[in-house]
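A favour between colleagues. Tell me how you read the following sequence-structure pair.

===
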Amino acid sequence: MPKIIDVHTHLGSQFFGDYRNKALKRALDNKIFVINVGVDKKSSQEAVEIANQNSFGVWATVGQHPTENNSSAGEFNYDFYKNLALEEKVVAIGECGLDYYHNQASKKLKVENYKEIQKEIFIKHIELAKEVNKPLMIHCREAFDDLIIILKSYVINSKFSPGVIHFFTGTLDNAKKLLEMGFYFTFGGLITFNRSFDEIIKFLPLDKILLETDAPFVAPIPYRGQKNEPFYIIEIAKKMAEIKGVSFKDICDQTTENVRVVFRLKI
């Protein structure tokens, strides 16, 4: 089987517990490499540790998911994330971004200005990405207009790709604007049972598409109802090949090449 890279998975103890090592081994045994994504201080630290425990095929990102934002923008510990970001196996800053749909933390804390707080913390991630010269791993849900405005202001004249819009759920117009800025796009298990994104996938150049599972969430067909894991990226690659009208091998080869470009990896 050709090499496949799951560029966005969550293999931390918060989601996988004792099953983590088994899921990771199954992926690596099948030539599936992973980028393990941090969503807060603990999971970011874990992601780095897991990457360092594996000599090859496992990397990390570090950042604070927008739904983890607390009662003030000062809750983002820039120095903490910077120290992690300087680790060799950290390839991106995030998961970060804007989420106006899942704002549970804000509701719990009765924060009225959660949108402004998310924007401030997202900008800090952008500043960190620029300082350490690593791309962004961006989460966005029901906030694409604000996301694009911020990115147009802060992500300009980048020598390398500014990053990845993970699990893209925006409109075709959103995709066009982000593509113009140099962003890449990932699609997960949703595309195996939801046809809403076929038009966008067909529009996007294959050299701007990456694959992800977002494990343990949104398992693809035929694993619906189960905990998702990196091994299931195979099903997402098959569906992507079907939608794009190319071979499974073409999808694997091109998306792997895209990973080399975005994250500047020697794989």
About this structure: The chain has a mean pLDDT of 93. The longest helix spans residues 114-132. The two ends are 16 Å apart (CA to CA).
